[in-house]
Amino acid sequence: MKNRLKVLRAERDWTQADLAEKLEVSRQTINAIEKGKFDPSLPLAFKAARLFGLTIEDIFDDEQ
Amino acid sequence: MTKITKTDFERTVKRNTRILGVATFAWVLSMAFAAFGPEYLWQSRWLSFFAILANALFGVGMIVANMKHISALDELQQRIQLTAMGISLGVAVVFGLSLSLLETTGALPIKAEIAHIVVLISFTYMGTLIVANKRYG
Hints:
The structure holds two protein chains of two kinds.
Chain A: E1 2-3, H1 5-11, H2 16-23, H3 27-34, H4 42-52, H5 56-59, E2 60-61
Antiparallel strand pairs in A: 1-2
Helix pairs in contact in A: 2-3
Chain B: H1 8-40, H2 45-72, H3 75-105, H4 114-136
């Protein structure tokens, strides 16, 4: 699944560690999501959407 | 150069891992005590019984520490652990029974022991963790 997490993070000048801290996950998980190696659960996707003030669809794209 | 700092989440995981390490070490130590005590330290059946009981209690402590450790991990880390555990269980059942069959049918002159399965599980678990962490790393 494609996502805009890296772009959104960069716009706010956050490191992976910053985002991991805010979402209460490991940096490994943020890295895996950004690289498309791991799809987050719905609760984590909602948490990310709330954090960025966007909808889930604005961040994650189901098209392969 | 980017300064790498540990997040609260990572600190919690590290603390739980350390607790699990201590609990595992205590269990292994009590296992050695219960296994070698009757040979080198005492000749009492009661002392052996209590040493085995203590070992089992340390084992329960280790299981609880492991449960806390896993529940504190995030979803990716839990998936990695679940994968490693699932593969280890499968390997243990399949090759454990193969080993047992080799012994019972006399196909190979070996003596199957539970320790062989424990070693097999350990190496499978560690190997799977390394591969999975590399995959998501």
